[in-house]
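lol ok so funny story. i was supposed to be doing the assay writeup but got distracted and ended up predicting the structure for this chain instead. priorities right. anyway since i did it might as well share w the group, maybe its usefull for someone
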Amino acid sequence: MGERPNTEWNADEAVTHLFGAHYRPMVRLASLLLHERGLAEEIVQDAYVRLHTRWHRLRDPDKALAYLRVTVVNGCRSALRHRRVVDAHLAASRPPPDVQSAEAGALDLLTQAAVVAALRRLPSRQREAIVLRYYADLSEAQMAEAMGVSRGAVKSHLSRGVAALRLTLERL
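and the output, tada:
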């Protein structure tokens, strides 16, 4: 098969040939323009769909590849314009970030370190129950399955662990 589609092909045959021969270079072109592979693939696929729907209107089927390339470039331009508008809108509507004071940040780190240290001192089953519940956000049934114990045992380990953590952290 040659580089260009046969002028006697129908839309399915021509687009199939062009897809097989030029899809990857078209995606590379769009990726270089957009710096985003997923969007580049979407634009190229849309360009092939447009070519297929307009195949019967092409005056010169030998220029199908050029039509495809122009469609990809125009699609990339449109995507970049859209991205700029969205970015500008987001920047304008984003509230200013709340900046935490250095003292508050230091206290948060100390508190976090104290909680981690207190967790490490708990018996392993209590520690597992707390981590599965509050870190992994599992239900009692999921925790029981993960720990290999009954739901009642999960409730017991969790209750004892929380009480021990509370007692340890209140002493600080």
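The two ends are 79 Å apart (CA to CA). The longest helix spans residues 64-93.
back to the writeup now i swear
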